[in-house]
């Protein structure tokens, strides 16, 4: 019985070798001998609640507490997004390369913060019940029917 195994093309092997070299470089960059240096690295951040994001992570202090700042890069039409994460909410933090983080950011992106707007307030039904100076009529009852 003959078994024939197809070997991947040379360019695929080269791509795999480059990827392994990038991952090894990322691992080497996390072996920091200076324990007092602030953390700053391209990472994949996995939060409790099954959320996963990739970007540049660094340690910051916000309102006196240690936080991580995640900067997800702009990709195409998607704007850059910055989020502050409490480290206790992180399930896993995986250092990686910038290229891998950017590739992941194309599909796993946090929603940018949007301005919250309340609906317009209803018109004041007592606006007409005022004197010539604009002072409200103190004798008008709330349950009084509006004559107009």
Topology:
Blueprint: H1 10-30, E1 40-47, E2 51-62, E3 65-72, E4 81-85, E5 90-95, H2 98-105
Antiparallel strand pairs: 1-2, 1-5, 2-3, 3-4
Annotation field: number of helices: 2
Q: What kind of assembly state do the chains in view correspond to?
A: single chain
Order of helices and strands: HEEEEEH
Q: Which sequence of strands runs across the widest sheet?
A: 4-3-2-1-5
Q: Regions with pLDDT < 50 over 5+ consecutive residues?
A: none
The backbone outline, from C-alpha atoms, is elongated
Supply the helix-strand structural class.
alpha+beta
In terms of DSSP E residues, the strand content is: 25-35%
Overall pLDDT: 76
The tally of strands reads 5
Radius of gyration: 29 Å
| Cα-to-Cα separation, first versus last residue | 99 Å
Give the helix level as a range of percent. 10-25%
Task: Describe the overall structure.
Helices cover 20% and strands 26% of the residues. 9% of the residues are buried. With 148 residues, it is α+β, with helices and mostly antiparallel strands. The protein starts with 9 loop residues before the first helix and ends in a 43-residue tail after the last helix.
In short:
The chain has 148 residues and is α+β, with helices and mostly antiparallel strands. The protein contains 2 helices and 5 strands; from the N terminus they run αβββββα.
Spell out the key features of this protein.
2 helices; 148 residues; 5 strands; 26% strand; single chain; alpha+beta; elongated; five-stranded antiparallel β-sheet; 20% helix
